[in-house]
Fold:
Amino acid sequence: MQKNILFTVRSAPYGSSLAREALDAILAAAVYEQNLSVLFMDDGVFQLINHQQGDKIQQKNISSILQAFPLYDVEPIYVCLSSLQQRDIRIEDLAIDAILLEKKQLQSLISQQEALLCF
Amino acid sequence: MFLNTAPIPMILHTVNQSPFDKQTLVHCLNRCGEDDSILLIENGVYAALTDGVFSKLLSGAAIQTVYALEEDVLARGLGSKILPTIKLIDYAQFVQLCTEHALVQSWF
Structure:
């Protein structure tokens, strides 16, 4: 039976390995064909910014990895609207298609899950 | 889009960072629901200091219960300095608490 599993991603990219580890874990989990979804919130929304050039600091581009998500059937991708607004990030700044959620919708999403994996 | 009208399940939030150093506890409190509880572990127990600046934040929060892990409190020599409204639990009770909540959300 498929379980509803939500990855909550709160870490900014490049400053620590957490962001990369989160994405690797998500892609690995996708193999098991559960009901996976991903929520970017707090500093995690920084991972979604377009035109990243990770190679400038000898790191793999985080946004490129994100763009591979649909290939692995990891969708939908949710983003916390207030986290974007606090950081002055607009929809046109995002590298991927994502569903923006307000607080109540976020709570509703979480209430439907059977497990949370927090990064 | 989400038409779920079932009661929102209880979440146990674990916080392991000191609020004097990181915003982790504040971020957690911003997302907590009324039915949720918080468990302070590791350096998170520093939020539970009786006369610390965060004691008001914790005692005023609209959530169920704030717990602190006793082993981490004792390790740090804080046994006599913890807010009385905070419930101290040990590792075994920690495990039990996890089984009693629908979800565990880990803040670090």
